[in-house]
């Protein structure tokens, strides 16, 4: 009786270990390594003017490893992924003058920004591409 339980226990332990090994292989993490840079793609290389109408600041990208969105003007702006809606003077991510957001591969969506005061501002974007 004891030998039967031991054999069953060893078989169960072996099955669990085999399952964990397969699970580890199924969850392999692939790293996106940037090797080149793209600046202000939505502005054709120039700073992106952000005024009273929502302005495209980041185009959709299926390959970007990292993206930086920076308010390099003097007035605050609000930004939001296009899939989430259109930013307004009171909704979206607030970026004051000099603020920036660094996104990894989760930030591959299109983004729009709008000024929050009567003064316009400018945005700069940098994308790391593989």
The backbone outline, from C-alpha atoms, is: globular
Give the radius of gyration: 24 Å
Round the mean pLDDT to the nearest integer and report it.
86
Which CATH class of the largest domain applies here? Mainly Beta
Q: Main sheet, how many strands, which sense, barrel?
A: 5 strands, antiparallel
CATH architecture of the largest domain: Sandwich
Order of helices and strands: HEEEEEEEEE
Helix content: 10-25%
Q: Give the end-to-end Cα distance, rounded to a whole number of Å.
A: 60 Å
CATH topology of the largest domain: Jelly Rolls
Strand content: 25-35%
Number of helices: 1
* Number of structurally distinct domains: 2
Low-confidence residue ranges = 6-13
Care to count the β-strands?
A: 9
Structure description:
The protein is of the alpha+beta class and about 130 residues long. It is about 20% helix and about 35% strand. Strands 1, 2, 4, 7 and 9 form a five-stranded antiparallel β-sheet that branches. The protein is globular, with a radius of gyration of 24 Å.
Entry summary:
The chain contains 1 helix and 9 strands, in the order αβββββββββ. It has 130 residues and is an alpha+beta fold.
